Amino acid sequence: MFTQTFTRTFAKRVLSSDLVDLLTGPHGVDRYTELVTPTWTSGEPRAKVIDVRRTTPRSVTLTLAPNDAFTERHRVRAGQFVNVTVEIDGRMHSRCYSPANVEGSNSLELTIGVHDGGLVSTYLYERARRGMVVGLDGVGGDFVMPELRPRRILFVSGGSGITPVMAMLRTLVAEGHSGEIAFVHYARTPKQACYREELAAMPGVRVLHGYTRSGVGDLDGRFDAAHLAAAMEAPDAVFVCGPTPLVDAVKAHCENVFTESFVPPVFEPPANPSGGRVKFADSKIDVEDDGRSLLEQAEAAGLKPENGCRMGICHTCTRRKTSGTVRNLVTGAVSTAPDEKVQICVSVPVGDVDIAL
Predict the structure, then answer these.
(1) Contact 346, 269 (CB under 8 A)
(2) Which of 297, 255, 259, 261 has its CA nearest to residue 280?
(3) Which one of 81, 176, 248, 255 is CB 3.0 to 4.6 Å from 96, fit for a cystine?
(4) What angle do CA 290, 296, 299 make, to 5 degrees?
């Protein structure tokens, strides 16, 4: 163990030295080490797929082994998301996924639901394999449990929203949580219910399933006061993740609700475009503002900027605004200063705008 640790430390110091950086310029040492092992990089967080399971007709579960460039920078708390990048037909695509593993695990477990028309989810469901390497970065999200754990906890999830909830649930069980835990999960059918067997065998957890399209299950219909009463009356804290209608229903019947919705919010662009012009300076493209987000206007102009969540979370689409004013549709914040970085998926022009794209 000492020899392995010494070797890794020595190699890391050598690869990150100024001399090696000079000798491998302009591309950098990572362009050479990745030819030997794709995850052996000093600066780029990556992960190797070490296991693939397709346990339901509409989901795939990947186990990832992150490299040191990721693990040394990031701590993923139960409930947070990571930004995963895959190459499809020569282009890089990024999406946010919430790991389902116990907090502090050396590996990351992602259960990815296939969405109709979803490019990345469909690709991973059909093509993911052991040994595949993906980019891994951008840990974030405030959907986490407090350090002082509530005593009586209710978890509610719908569809692929189960993953951050599973991370919390597994973490509590691993900690030996002494309080009460109940879990309600909604899926279309029993076959599409992820983690069903594991949940059934989980000690000390009351588990209820609702199947919205099969007419069977522990619960009939969608979340309401009766479902709450069946699961846990007056919980100290409720953690819910799923489609917006489910989140809204839980909020209507519960207090102390912590939420996350994996459905992109509906943004309301200005009723009237600013009348200004949008210049994508690097591409020498100049268009009249039509009121949509900068990302949508760039795509309409034939550009293909990198993007991920399209909802202001992953920051993949961040670009430099060289001049002009934009408004963030999520926060309402207005950016007026030159050379500010903005998320073009959720930013709309206010007058003339120049973007480095």
Answers:
(1) no
(2) 297
(3) 81
(4) 110
Report whether pLDDT(272) > 80: no
3-state SS assignment for residue 135: strand
CATH of the domain at 347: 3.10.20.30
Instruction: Please count the CA atoms within 13 angstroms of the CA of 341 that sit on its side-chain side.
Output: 6
Single-letter amino acid, residue 75: R
Residues 236 and 286 occupy one common structural domain: no
pLDDT of residue 43: 74
Whether the CB-CB separation of 283 and 357 falls below 8 Å is answered with yes
- 306, part of any domain: yes
Cα separation of 240 and 235, whole Å?
13
Residue type for position 268: E
Residues 51, 115: one domain? yes
Q: Which residues pair with 50 in a beta bridge?
A: none
Asked if pLDDT for residue 252 goes beyond 70, the answer is yes
| Same domain? 42 vs 118 | yes
The parent domain of residue 225 ranges over: 152-261
For residue 275, give both structure tokens: 């009348």
- pLDDT class for 213, splitting at 50, 70, 90? confident
Considering the domain architecture, whether residues 164 and 234 belong to the same structural domain is answered as yes
Position with higher pLDDT, 273 vs 268: 273
Q: Do residues 112 and 182 both lie within one domain?
A: no
H helices present in 267-332, as ranges = 294-300
Does 271 fall in a domain? no
Over residues 147-174, the mean pLDDT reads 96
Q: Record the tokens describing residue 338, joined without a space.
A: 């030159």
